[in-house]
Protein 1
Amino acid sequence: MSTDIGSEVILIDEDGEEIVCDILFTYDNEDRGEQYVVFYDPNDEESLFVARYYEEGDDIIFELDLSDEEFKEAEEVLAAYDEDPLIQEERDMN
């Protein structure tokens, strides 16, 4: 079951500054029962982040520390996302 996390993720950098990131997409791994989010800093579109997330009370917790297996899976999901013809068509329209 997916949790609605909105359209943005706010990161806090090492200087305590907030970085508002846009969510590209979310996906679930049903085998592990985990949810993931892929997001980027709109001021630096070369930066791409992947995090595991879950609900804890009223809060949504994001964990950036992924295992090698989770990171490899995220790369595969991102590659499939990039190859999706509907996504390519939408990009061409923008």
Note: Helices lie at 68-83, 85-93.
Protein 2
Amino acid sequence: MRKRAKLVEFKNLLETNKENTRIERHIKDERVRLASHVRKLREKRFMTTTELARSANVSYKSISKIENYKPVRFDTVLKVLKSLGIRITYSLD
């Protein structure tokens, strides 16, 4: 009986890991899309990274992280998008 319980537990762990991997992949894909949009919008406005950072009241490092697919705080992303003239709406439904 114990072997069967451990096998079921192991299978559940594998399924959880698969789901976590899928979620992580989705998050990375969204980071790549966001970075692409931020860079394109910044360049379209002929702004340097430093100018965007000043405009958004965030650090140069934050802009660099966004454009290089690194995680940043959500409020930082909102500040950057707002300074680029992008309005974001979201729902917790």
Note: The longest helix spans residues 2-44.
